[in-house]
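Before a colleague's protein record goes any further, I have to sign it off. What it holds is a sequence and that sequence's fold in token form. My question to you is simply how this chain folds and whether the tokens agree. Thanks in advance; the entry in question is below:
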Amino acid sequence: MEPLIITVAPVGAEATRAQHPALPLTPAEIALAVYEAYREGASIAHLHARDVNGDATQDARVYAEIIGEVTARCDIIIQVSTGGAVGMTRQERAGPLALRPEMATLTTGTVNFGDGVFYNAGQDIQFFATEMGRLGIKPEIEIFEVGMIDNAMRLVRDGLLSRPLHFDFVMGVPGGIGGSPAHLLHLIHSLPPQSSWTVAGIGRHELPLGAMAVILGGHVRVGFEDNLYYSRGVLAASNAQLVARIVRIARELGRPVAGPAQARAILGLKNPQQEKP
């Protein structure tokens, strides 16, 4: 079984300091959270950004500050979100792609998202796929419902995505696919051959789905974007603590944990530091 890739998602678009006092919001705080998670075993940083008021932003300047702070500390793979926050336009959401990160998320369908709707029309999906292809960015295809896998395969047939594909199953969002083991198995069995996959369990689903991914040969995303708690009613001390738990589970089960270089090899990425003259 190949080494386990652990992604840390230190802050999303929705959580607030009222919910968790240690939620990282500033570029320096987000970068420090990423570095601490990297030291525990994370090899990908899935990034969202916040503005000076703590609200979600897709401003490339803020992302550039975060990325600069992260890359000064470690060589973790940078993956930016093109989801942004519910209600943003596709032009807003595409902002950080101009920075040409190694990876970015590509959601291939519309889904109810709590009380809102995460809207991705066909033309929007094609727009993001085209931009990532033009800029040489590896997409992580975000799946909130099983039909989104079929939508991704349409992009392959249209020449907008190339295999092998890498998917992220986001499970347990109110309005999307549930976080049950049966649902995870169905998603895995629905993938095209030679695909790799990560699971991001939301809330209480993070730990059991992560453990399943370790056993089944997938990869795992953890962090405050998805889950603020370490156990029922107990807030996690940090993003790094959530990463460390998955590392411990993987080691107990005999599965090695990938460093950034191994993760790049698994995903077919090139280290941008090695490409500099």
User: Anything to note?
Assistant: The longest strand covers residues 138-143. The chain has a mean pLDDT of 96. The domain at 6-270 is CATH 3.20.20.70 (TIM Barrel).
